[in-house]
Amino acid sequence: MMEEMREAARALYHPLVRKWKEAGKTVIGYPCTFVPEEIIHAAGMLPYRMRGIGTTSLSIGDTYFGPVICSLPKCMLQLAGEHAYGFLDGVIITNGCDSMRRLNECWRKAGEDIPGILPGYFHYFGVPHKAASYSYEWYEEEIRELIKSLEEHFGVKVTEKALRKSIRLYNESRRLLQKLDDLRSGTEARMTGEDALTVILAGSAMPREEYTALLKTLLKDLKKALPIDKGRKRLMLVGSSNDDPEFVRLIEDSGALVVADSLCFGSRSYEDLTNEEGDPVASLSRRYLNQCRCPRMFGCYQDRLSLILDKAEKARVDGVILQNIRFCDLHGSENGIFERDLEARGIPCMRMEREYGPLVETGRIRMRIDAFLERIA
Amino acid sequence: MKRETREYHYDWNIWSIIENASRTGDGTRKEYDTLLKLIPHFRDSLDAVIRWGEPGTLLLKLLAQCLNAVLTAHEQGKKVALTTFCFAPPILHAFDVVPLVLEPMTVLGTFILQRGTGEYLDYCCEVGFTETSCSSQRGALGAYLAGLGVRPDFIICDSPGICDTNANSYAFASAYLDIPFYQLNYPPFLTGERASAYHRQDFRGLISFLEEQTGHTLDMDRLRQITAEIRRQSELITEINELQRIVPSPVPGIFNLFLYSGNFLMGGTPGFTDLLESMLKYIRGRAAQGLAGTRSGKERARGFFSYIDHYTTDLRFWTFLENRDISHLGCILSTFWQEDAPYSMEHPDAVYRVEDGDLDAMIDSLAMQVSRMPMIKSIRGPYDAPHMWLDDTLTMTRLLRADFVAYFGTIGCRNTWGMVKPYARDLERAGIPALILYADAFDDRVQSWDAVIDKMQEFLSLRKIGTGRPARRPWR
């Protein structure tokens, strides 16, 4: 079962996606957790969170993006340009951050030069940066437009019944992931951070029904598993997107255990549930826009600090790694204030700037992790 | 930060320099020439402004007033709002709140101080900013974070949805200084009832925030006066925009800086109206004589700077253009989208109108004005969407008959660096020579001014711009 999860986490076009496509079904890619997966699922399609794994060059990414841009969307564009995302029937771009939202233009322009890389369905989903009555309404309208465009383009129907069912299913899997968090961050941790990330990543790229079933089995097995945290420093990982289990392994190989996180390829994607009563579109709007966990939601620093403090206390962490991808100023700068405020409360922190992509910086990162672990020993 | 830097309050320091500078034009020419010899570190900046006569002196006097208002606000029982250049300040003036606008404060430090604002930029990184964050805020913000300036009472920014790094600087300042924060957040498109309703509701939220922070309600009479002032200013700006279309352009390049810095700091105040009238008097005179706004009165090329300008020490950017008889036709910062502007005619739904029928109409006018401010209007959506950056640049270059477009930005500008390459390619495809400069407009350490000059000269030379053999343009 973990092997299935690993397969789904380490390849873009993994067997479960292949099977889905072979059944003649549709896959829709999206780059950010502010896109409501439930809508895509309710349309009978596979919501697939895009990543930039496996890139060996940025020749295409650098042609369209400027030089001072986060390497995550550049890697995504590179993969798109190399036809690695050819299995996507559609893509929904959102303004998660400025680097990511420009994937819209760069992909379209690359599509003019490289035939066949632009999916037939290419939709822009505008997400407000604040939670207020009118921004909830805006988000609701965005959802309704998304539904309409999916229906028109693919000739499908998103019924209220299907949407409610999708909401329940996603809530169920999010609850299971929360239980997984308990087993990971409890007094006796039963899962490595590397495996936890693998499980979360798998969920972003496989049919949710199968994923939920796998999660249930995994949880049963984990309850019987032996604790693995003895003698290891318990760390929390915070900051920019990380979809690389090997990065977590690098940290854990130094004698630590990543027992908690605040990452979008991580707990941020399942900590909130959608209200299953009332208008489902309105409920989704509340669920997605209420997430103040990403610094793209400006002016919510204290909320994010409280969340990290609660989690650090609950997981009894010995230290926090505050990392950001270079040019991710939202996370990078906020990490600076987190460092001030967490250290003031006696929680040791390490800030780290890194590049997204293959671990070319392994030596440097390992040295810094070792030094941090020595500090908190 | 060095100890000697810590000995000066940044805003007091800048105010004292500007205050003294503003008096230098009051004496005789002989006195002024003698003074220049005595102030080697300031003379180039000073002369770049004062040599234009009354408008230059007036700008300095008004800047000194603005800075003094910041310094004395708390003594006078007024609140200070830390805000951004792309926020139109009239609503603050209506509440008698003093705007402290970071980017102009950075610009002032960048061109006046011989060492630039490097230490303040770096101080931001010492307290947590990434070194890749936008320099336009960090240049002055470092001083305020270090306690070397007036402590603002609250923060208003209108860049969420437009520019992450701008919004992030203000969000950081709010968290770091632990002061209230209000964001105007913009949707990814400009027109239509849905976007307009969002603009209006968000702006009303701002008014509630200001009422809460100041303890007073919006004064209708004061708002009416400000609205009348905005109307007059919109007319005057439109006339400048029209005159800029003449070949040769009678508008001195640096007047663009006067125009936008005035609007960012004093929009809606009588002082800004006076400045615009003074500038217009000068420009009309040049136009009547058929002279360009350059020092020689000649025009060899016309350039549109499609994003921002370069604010290197001593205002050398403008001097560089003037010495080469290149007319500066404006940048994104000098386009405000008032309804009568020449560039607005083809985009009637993308403009703002000044309405003063009742309180709601006036508030809506202000909301629309803010939503059309530089960058807020054009950088919110895909660059090639209607009313966005490419559309606007094509309109401007056609109307202004620009020979080339140049892009200056900051290393922190994810938003434009995310697509400036395809943007420039689209401009080239439309027949407009386009240059991307990899400099930082506020931090010479990223790329020296000499390197910038080299790039510009190489570009102008290779593209045969200003050589007397104008390149073919679609509109010629």
From TrEMBL, chain A:
Signal peptide: none annotated. Its EC number is 1.3.7.8. Keywords: Oxidoreductase. The keyword Oxidoreductase applies. InterPro entries: FldB/FldC_alpha/beta (IPR010327). GO terms for molecular function: benzoyl-CoA reductase activity. PANTHER family: 2-HYDROXYGLUTARYL-COA DEHYDRATASE, D-COMPONENT-RELATED, DEHYDRATASE SUBUNIT MJ0007-RELATED. Belongs to the FldB/FldC dehydratase alpha/beta subunit family. This is Benzoyl-CoA reductase subunit C. The gene is bcrC.
From TrEMBL, chain B:
Belongs to the FldB/FldC dehydratase alpha/beta subunit family. It comes from anaerobic digester metagenome. PANTHER family: 2-HYDROXYACYL-COA DEHYDRATASE,D-COMPONENT, 2-HYDROXYGLUTARYL-COA DEHYDRATASE, D-COMPONENT-RELATED. This is 2-hydroxyglutaryl-CoA dehydratase, D-component. Coiled coil: none annotated. InterPro entries: FldB/FldC_alpha/beta (IPR010327).
